[in-house]
Amino acid sequence: MIEFFKLLSNREISILIWTVLFFVGLIVSSKGSFENILNVIKILFSKHFIPFYIVFGLYFTIIIIALNRITIWEFSLYKDFAYWFLTTGILLFFSANSLETYRDFTNVILTAISITIILEFIIGFYNFSLVWELILIPFVTFIALLSLVAEMKKDDRNSKLVAKFLKNLLSIIGFGILACSIYNIIVSYNDFFTLSNLKSFLLPPIFTLIFLPLIYFTVLYMKYERVFVSLNRYKFLSNTRKRKIKYAIIKYANIKFKRIEKSNKVILFNKRELQNETNIKSYIRNNIKLKTKE
User: Cβ(253)–Cβ(259) under 8 Å?
Assistant: First the structure.
């Protein structure tokens, strides 16, 4: 664990310190905050989420073991993996419901391999002293939050001007940090262009692409769960009838989002047909396969 913390940069240490101070301050300042945090933790580790965590844990453990076997993995990458998982990985998982179409997944892929990851890596590689990072992190965060609040008040002309000013200020700070980072690369390029840094740079986009198939099947599971929960509520259908309907939906909807959504509409709005149709499999097929535009 000590060796792991030695890998942290001044910026990462600063973020960690301010995050801890924020939560400590939140708990001390409000009596109900600690209980709210505990409630959030209980939700995050509820029975509904634990199977996903186990699958994700096993999935990435196998990948890391495989990379270790072929001597690609090294100890320093654990820090990069932890940072990726606590940001991109968790965000992808908890925003899975918003990934409704194949285009949404394509956008994630394009973001993962866009040129911005190069700029982010360059900016994140070179840090200021810990004192300056402790000043810079809350300052930039505060400016970003003010900009967000001002952006929300679109009808107010003064708010628009404030939002524009704050955005320009953030851009100036960003370009300043980028310029310092590029300067340091030029001065000490031997420290930057190393195999370890290349691995560190490639880890986030590669792990995002590796994670997407699992996220896809997570979304698939959620969509099927929504359909089957609706179906299971119907007491007027026998269990045998429900099983036939579920089998038909899985068979004809398969892994296609549009067909699963169509299945959900059939379950919600075609109750009489679900009960009375003599050939339920053919009915499901005609409504979710033939009538759905691919």
Answer: yes
